[in-house]
Structures are given as C-alpha cells and as structure tokens.
Amino acid sequence: RVGCVEDGRVAELDVPDMVELIAAGRDEAERLRASARVGPTLGEVTLLAPVPQPPKVIGIGLNYRDHAEETGSKLPEEPIVFAKFSSSVCGPGHPIRIPAITERADYEAELGVVMGGPAKRVSVEKALDHVFGYVNVNDVSARDLQLAAPGKQWTRSKSIDTFAPCGPWILTSDEVPDPQALSVRCRLNGEIMQDSTTAEMVFTVAELVSFLSQGMTLGPGDLIATGTPAGVGFTREPPVLLKAGDEVTVEVDGLGTLSNPVEA
Questions:
Q1: φ/ψ bin of 256: left (φ > 0), alpha (ψ from -120 to 50), beta (otherwise)
Q2: pTM, whole model, 2 decimals?
Q3: What average pLDDT is seen over the chain?
Q4: Tens digit of pLDDT for each residue in 172-212?
Q5: What CA–CA distance (Å, rounded) separates 62 from 203?
Q6: What is the per-residue pLDDT across 18-44, written as a single tens digit (0 to 9) for each?
Q7: Which pLDDT score, from 0 to 100, does residue 38 have?
Q8: Domain ranges, ordered by start, for the chain
Q9: Are 248 and 187 in contact (CB under 8 A)?
Q10: How many CB atoms lie within 10 A of CB 158?
C-alpha cells in the first residue's frame, strides 16, 4: 500500500505502487493526497521501503571530502558510479542480515535521491526539476569483498540482500529548498559515528543527476545514493564493523529516522 504521512498519521492513497504515483506527477500526487482520508497513526502501521523495488539503484563513491580524506584517497575528478541491485533494498526496522560470505560489514549513512519524471541529458541548472524527493539510505557494504584484490567487487559487496535500507519515507523535493544544506548522521547502538553535512559533497545532487543523465535515462523511482561522509567503520582504529545485535540509525535533516537491527 502507498500512503502519505501528515501530523503523525497515515492516509492511504488510491494508487497501486509508489513508482506509478511518482510517474503520475506532482499534481496527481497532490490530488490523491487531498482526497485521501486520514487513517492510523505511524505506530499502528508497518512501514516498508518507500520504493520497495527501485528500477535502478545507483551508488556514488568518494563523494564527501571528509570521507575521501579519511580513506587517504584523492578527490575524484568525476563521479565514481556503481550499482546496487534492487533486491538489496529493505525498509525501516527490517533486519540487516550479514551472510557468511563477509566478516567486514560496514554502515554508510547517505542522502538518497528519488527521481521523478524521465531525465535524459539534463543540465545542472535543470537537474533538480527532475527530482521527486529525498530519503535516508544506509549503503551497507561488505568491505572484505569491496576492497579485496583481485577484482574489488563493489557491486557484489553492496548488493547483498538487505544491504540497502531506505526510509522511513520520501520527503518531496518542494520541502527541501537546498539539498546541499542537510546534516547527515549515523548512530551505532546510540553512539554517533558519522556527523557531517551535504555541503561536504564533492559533486552536488544537481551535478550527479546531470552527470548520470548524459548516458542513461533516469526514470520515476530510480534511487541515487549520493555518497557517505567521514566516520565509516573500516577506517577506525580498531575497525568498528557491524555484528549481530547492533542497531544502526541514519538521519538526514527532515527525512525522519531510519533504524535497522543487525542479524547474522
């Protein structure tokens, strides 16, 4: 079911799925919202990922200056793009399940961009016109798979089932006047591990959308994970890696709280 949240209550919208709602456009979404009857409180429903199966999940690497510094990496001259399969997406409260193939699962708090109408070869100046909204994303990564030679398996390391928690909802772009002025935080078992701002991005949201659209059409419901700031676990001494019993929380300004337990 698809709904909207107002004043802590959920109103169900008369549309089969979120991608169809996004494709219908902002005016239709507003019409559906206006005609919906307010229903249960947030505490009475189970929230799934806002877009359970995005048509595309696109990740961006080393897109925060402070994160590049902590990893000893040079700032990229153009966005570093990788894919996460949509089967890795899960919602708030859903367990992050660490499989036996990795012993170095790590958190990454990120601003997620949910695309609206089709974007193909758009300019930086027009790029944000094609954004539907924003969502918390945890780009969970198996560092031993991602960084091990040979191959450096980025896609495999980041596409493990449940390794892309998203939610709890999408904040529409009209509610975010400047996506480069948002705080980004990650807590592990209540302790702040990442605390930065999207002003630290190497490439802005508009620049990322424009760059990606030069070679691929970005469509309704596509999700862009825009990179993570400093504070990830594998760069710490000693490393702080996810384990069964942990609770990971991602918070970007205005986007609610995305919390997930960890299982092994």
A1: left
A2: 0.96
A3: 96
A4: 999 999 999 999 999 999 999 999 999 999 999 999 999 99
A5: 10
A6: 999 999 998 898 899 889 988 999 999
A7: 85
A8: 1-45, 48-263
A9: yes
A10: 25
Long-range Cβ pairs for the range 141-147 (8 Å, 24+): 141/105, 141/106, 141/108, 142/101, 142/102, 142/104, 142/105, 142/106, 143/102, 143/104, 143/105, 143/106, 143/234, 143/241, 144/102, 144/103, 144/104, 145/101, 145/102
> Between these two residues, 249 and 39, which has the higher pLDDT value?
249
Secondary structure in 3-state letters for 36-100: CCEEEEHHHCCCCCCCCCCCCEEEEECCEHHHHHHCCCCCCCCCEEEEECHHHEECCCCCEECCC
CATH 3.65.10.10 holds for 48-263: no
CB 9 within 8 A of CB 40: yes
Q: Which helix (H) or strand (E) holds 226?
A: none
78-104 tens-digit pLDDT: 999 999 999 999 999 999 999 999 999
252 three-class SS: strand
Token pair belonging to 92: 């708030």
Amino acid identity of 195? D
Structure tokens at 156: 């495999």
Distance CA 143, CA 146 (A): 5
| Beta strands per DSSP E along the chain | 3-6, 9-12, 38-41, 57-61, 80-84, 89-90, 96-97, 105-106, 109-115, 131-138, 141-142, 164-172, 183-188, 191-197, 223-225, 247-252, 257-263
Give the rounded percent of residues in the chain with a pLDDT score beyond 90: 92
Structure tokens at 245: 């019993």
100-156: pLDDT as tens digits:
999 999 999 999 999 998 999 999 999 999 999 999 999 999 999 998 867 789 999
Distance CA 182, CA 137 (A): 14
